[in-house]
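Memo to structure team: turn this sequence into structure tokens by end of day. - J.P.
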Amino acid sequence: MLPPRWGIRRPWVLRALMVLFLGGAIAIIWVSNIWLTERFTESTRNRAEVRLAIYSGSVISEIQRHQVVPLLLSRDPVLIRSLEANDYTNISQYLISYVDEIGAASILLLDREGRVVGATDRARISQRRDSDPFFVEATRSPNTVFTSNEPETGRFDFTFSRQIESG
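Reply from structure team:
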């Protein structure tokens, strides 16, 4: 009588072994997924940190390179004379030659009232910029001022500005 009873229990043992096997397989897949995800995340984070260091170094280099331009232009005798004499006929061409040499996006020259009197983009001449942050900050400080703002266009403007004073 033993053999028939043993045959009835055998399917339960097989089912229990199958459930254990499937549970172990699921556990192995789950643990390996967590481990591989962490490794991938760590390597991606390391690459991103390296790229961030390279890009931030490039940005700082560009800022330092362009920071000296307002100082040089503020001491330029041609610009000082044209501002004193209110003669702006050749200023835009003069600024365009500077842009070609230094690689800046654009240069604006404003008078005391904030009106554009010289620009590398001639369409900007005669615009009133007296409420723009770069003009306001430059009138308050004797040093070169770096400003960034987001005008209505949705893009960011990064500007260096400085007062030009004769004497």
